[in-house]
Structure formats: structure tokens, C-alpha cells
Amino acid sequence: MSTHIAEVIWRARPGDEFLAGRYSRSHELRFDGGAVVAGSPSPSVVPAPWSDAAGVDPEEMFVASLSSCHMLWFLDFARRAGVEIHAYHDLAEGVMAKNDEGRIAITRVALRPTIDSDADRATLEDLHHKAHEACFIANSVKCEVVVEPQTRSEGKEADHV
């Protein structure tokens, strides 16, 4: 298959008191294509000043990876089917709670893509189903992943598909 590399780099900063737990958790994420992203725990998990709300947290990256993977498959299946897609926007949401084993985990991710297309509802639903089945990331996680598509035809309000 293939291998994917991500570098995660953290360094203590002047004035940090690591052993006392008073240190910044901000870090840098580097990807093989050259992208560099500021990383941090969520301020809801680790409060400021030990986190940075401007950094991307692991929970956000998890949700974004599911959303991105679904979108890429959706677009590919639409292209193969000859379905024109004008725009794709997903407001994905992950819920962190205790799982069945009593551990804190992301237990559910809802993908809520809004699709701008002239295709009918049944066609879009079929494309979402195929995308969900093919998504490598969705196939790799144990939390519930649901797709709650929205659709918007040009000049019309979004509605549920």
C-alpha cells in the first residue's frame, strides 16, 4: 500500500517548569508535502497558558481527516458518475465522551456536507454512501461516523438530503 509521514515537534520553552506541569504543550506538525501547522491541545482539555487556541488540536485533526477523506472520495465518485459538483462545504463535528469501555474518546463524528450541484437527492445520497464506504479514515476508526448531508442547488436554501 503506502506509508504516510507526519512529524510532531515539541520543545520546552524558557521559563517552563516541566516537572511541575507548568509548560506549554504547543508544538509543530510537519507533513511530507511541506505543510507546517501549529499544534496544541484543545483549551477545553489543557487550559491556557499551557495551550494555544490558535493551534490545531488532535481532536480537530481527527474530525478534519474524516471530513477531508469523505470529501475526496465523494468528489471522485461524482466525477466518475458524470455528476457536476460546483462546491462542497462540510461543517463536521466530533463529540468527545466516555465510550463503552469507560474511556474518554471521540465517540461520534457527524459529517454535514453541503453540496452545490444540480444532481437529484437520490444521486447525492448514493455518492455519499459510496464515499463513506471507501473512506480509508472512516474504515480505520471505531467511533460512530454518520453522514448527514445537506444539499443546495444554485440559488436555493440548503436542505437535508
UniProtKB/TrEMBL annotation:
Entry superkingdom: Bacteria
Designated name of the protein: Organic hydroperoxide reductase OsmC/OhrA
InterPro entries in UniProt: KH_dom-like_a/b, OsmC/Ohr_fam, OsmC/Ohrsf, OsmC_Ohr_Peroxiredoxin
